[in-house]
Amino acid sequence: MRRLSLSVLLAAAGVLLTPAAALAHAELLSSDPAYGDRLGAAPAEVRLVFSGGIDLTGARVTLQRKGSNKIEALHPSPATPDRRVASIALPARLSDGAYSFVWFFLGNDGHLMGGDVPFTVGQLPTHGPAAATVVPMAAPAPMPDVRAAKRPRLTIAVATPQAAARLLDYASLTILIGGGFFLARVWADGATERRAKRLLWWALAGSALATLLTFGLTAAGLRGVSALDALDPPVMGAVLGTRFSRIMAARAMFLGLGFVTLAMLTMGRDQAVRSRWWQGLAATAGGGVVVTHALLGHASNEGFAARLAVFVHLVGVAVWLGGLVFLAAVVLPRRRAEEVRVVLARYSSLAFTAVSAMVVAGAVMVLRVAPKVTELPESGYGRLLLLKLVFVAVLLAAARQARVITERRLVTDATRMRPLLAAVGVELVLAVVILSSTSVLAGREPPSTRPPTSAVSTLKGQR
Predict the structure, then answer these.
(1) Predicted TM-score of the model (pTM)
(2) Helix, strand, coil content of the chain in percent (nearest 5)
(3) Which fold has domain 28-121?
(4) Which tens digit of pLDDT belongs to each residue from 290-339?
(5) Residue of 448, 278, 303 lying closest to 366 (CA atoms)
(6) Which whole-number Å values give the CA distances from 335 to 195, 328, 341, in the listed order?
(7) Helix intervals (H) in 86-193
(8) Contact, 51 vs 27, CB < 8 A?
(9) Per-residue pLDDT tens for 396-455?
(10) Which positions ≥6 away from 339 have C-beta within 8 Å?
(11) Parallel, antiparallel, or unpaired: how do β-strands 97-107 and 71-74 relate?
């Protein structure tokens, strides 16, 4: 279809015409003492300098002397008004020896990050130059408690559960927002379908569960405990008071508003979905949830333009793919050829607008992650992003083919809808792959945020 082809051209234009800008993410730039320093006298404090603001609420900072089982908990404080420098007072009169200083913070963008700064006090035998080793932060070894060493029965890396929670969140949000938009703008009669309402309720439940898991898993990573303990109230309390917790609380409130909206739809059916009051309430609930996503993540520190690009991109994806789910799960199984012809024509027009907005906003986001597109193959993040873009291109081609089938082959005979069902099924499979890759990308470090190779080695946080 010409419109989908035009949307691809719009994406290319966005890539070529959008000015390059680096996407900021708080990373450790330097520390004093530096990684592997040998000091003649014990320092009074450790200073950590970051590229962006950090949230010290609930921070976990410890100091351990090599050869000792005792781990001392330390308390960081901001050293500058912009919260880019953290100061951590060390215990007085440190004896000579090798120490490991370990920190775990939340960035202002809600990303979990941490690092290890080893240093030596006094003159010790040299065993060769210190080598910076990177440890996956998403699965930190539980810090033993001197008072009561209690090991979890089973330790699960936080990274994988977080990726699964993001996938659940993206899929549920897509169905919830896209499905509501589909009923309000494409197929109001579908509000009487029990299957449509059931799908929306399940999507709302999935979003609520994903929100709870995201909150708990972030807290578990900050505390350094197993993902199995993520929903324990004392563990979840570790992030209370942070910017991340406030945004997640706002997301929960908007999901609560979504509950009210769905209750009204269930009772009022098509009369409710045609009401401007209901549409405004649904737009407030869905838009509010999407805003909370734009306020967290890689674009949260980049100002209004970057957040707007994320918002537009997420809404475009939701309207496109969520409508596709409703088309496949609710409309096509009815096997009413005339209804499919009318609904699909309306959806195609809506999908064109959604895809156009999605790809242009996505192009802006790509350039903010990697100002030089040619550098993308040089990093794992970039290669995964390119693979996702390939799947998006294939999905666009599949969508175009499905519309061609509809325009040329769909007749009153319902049996002729089989090719359309197959094409839509392919689209849905590709959509799952795209959402899966997106959930992984959200947990990876964009290449433009990496500090110089001379910077202090850090334990890379799960994003």
Answers:
(1) 0.73
(2) 60, 15, 30
(3) Immunoglobulin-like (2.60.40)
(4) 999 888 876 666 677 778 888 988 898 889 888 888 988 898 888 787 88
(5) 448
(6) 15, 11, 11
(7) 159-185
(8) yes
(9) 666 666 556 555 555 444 445 566 666 666 666 666 665 565 555 555 555 554 444 333
(10) 331
(11) unpaired
